[in-house]
Description:
Blueprint (H helix, E strand, L loop, with lengths): L10 H11 L6 E5 L6 H13 L12 H7 L6 E4 L8 H13 L8 E5 L7 H12 L5 E7 L7 H4 L3 E4 L5 H10 L4 H11 L3 H9 L1 H16 L3 H37 L6 H41 L12 H9 L5 H16 L7 H13 L5
Parallel strand pairs: 1-4, 1-5, 2-3, 3-4
The structure holds zinc ion.
Amino acid sequence: MSVWENLGGTPAATWLAGQIAAGEVPHAWAFLGPAGSGKKPTAVAMAAALNCPREPLVGCGVCPTCSRVLRGRHPDVHHIVPEGPLIPVDVVRELVVPEAARSPFEGIYKVFVIEEADRMNEPAQNALQKTLEEPQPDTVFVLISEHEEEILETVRSRCRIVRLEPLPEQRVIEILTAEGADEGDAVLAARISDGDVTRARAVIGDGATRERRALWSTIPRRLAAPTDALAAATEIVAEVKETLKAREAEQKEEVVELAEAMGEGRGTRAPQTALAKRHRRELRRLEELILGEALQTLASFYRDVLVMRAGGSDSVVNIDLVEEISLRASEGGADDAALVRVVERFLEARGSLVHNANQALALEGALLEAVRLAPA
Ligand SMILES: [Zn+2]
């Protein structure tokens, strides 16, 4: 057992595990690759390998240190996530730069995982660059991005570049069935997750993710009139709130854990404030993720109808809904152009989540477009 095993044996993870085990630990890395290529889980595995006291530079994956790093609960592994569209310069100045100058709190390495690093604006990247130029020996940065062209050359050039790719569908199926998943569930999860083994595991093993997808999947058949679109939008938003509430409860636990780890006294205010800020960012991001999940599921449903009409039933993504999809495809009424418009509306709404202040409105708009497909 090692922290790397969960990653499904991607070439990048295998190479990286070898580098770290050999003590090759540059202080800045850039993990680049498309969505679903496992950038974040790979960064977290590396953070665990760097801090594991039981199997140093390997990461046993089971000791309390590994377990806390893997759950995102280790005081020396910092996750920097965007707040809305940006990682603003204040975050880099207030959270990253001073923290990077301190020694690890209890671990061996202090690791900063900067998620969607391309969302650092230019001042933020410049501020980070200064820190990258004067590295502490026990601090490691991992910049994660699927838009590397948005990262300044001056920053990129200071990082060891690792390119990641999603796994082939067949490989994801093999991993899931080896882990005990039913063959049918594995095929569906692999198809939906597009080579992202972490997401595929969630689709299979995480009850909340499964239930949400089941709910999103029932929406198309319920869209007959404009009021149905509004009801579906309300339902999706309520589901998002429910998920956020669950996460808030976990965050409260984390605050208690931090207080216990640090004890009361001087110097505890700054980490507490930092944690509160991180929690707010996490909630906003989770909201984005769940809404994105809903919009993606709906887009892929209508795309499947188009695919089916074109005779490409082998490339249907939502194979558990194939009967409904095929029925829709054979229905008259909506023409292909109307279907294309609906798919586009859902994808546009998804793409604009980050920048859009009124996400509910974008969601309603796309659902209303889908209502037009209903036979008169
Ligand atoms: Zn360990």
